[in-house]
Please model this.
Amino acid sequence: MDYKHIAHIAFKLVVRPAEAWAAIKEEDKNRVLTVFVYPLIGLTALCVFIGMLGNGGWNAQNIRMAMTRCCAVAVALFCGFFLAAHCINKYRVHALRQESDTPLARQFAGYAMVVVFMLDIILALFPNFFFIGLLLQFYIIYVVWEGADVLMGVPDDKRMQFTIVSSLFLLLAPWLIQKVFMLLVNYQ
Model:
């Protein structure tokens, strides 16, 4: 894993998304999983585990809760990524009349989820920033807006609609899966 490369891409996506999307467009579409999504899912899950133990102590009950929460976040991000990418691809086909391109949708969803990954990491380590985190998650709209033009080739008249719908998929898919997971494991 080249974490320096991951940090560089994540930083560019947050600070200069248009420039980052232009560089991403030149990459192999299938690389997003191994060079960005999977490492960030692992890092996020690790930060959740560490954050829960750091805030609650090293007793048996807290370790169990930290493991459960860590698994929930990993499953939610993993499944949420694939669900969001699938929904974005279907939306492209039906609403924009573009051809189906699953690798492109995965590439777009994986890199656009940088905001979700970063917020989950920050909130895991600093849970007192919860309210600020709720507000900052809407920054995904700007990242998606830039990617819709540069990477996805969405026409200008459909760009706002695509941005809102895609942002909702990217934010709600992991959240919904995490809620279901936590319900199934009866997390307190």
The chain has one domain: 3-184. DSSP finds nine helices and no strands in the chain.
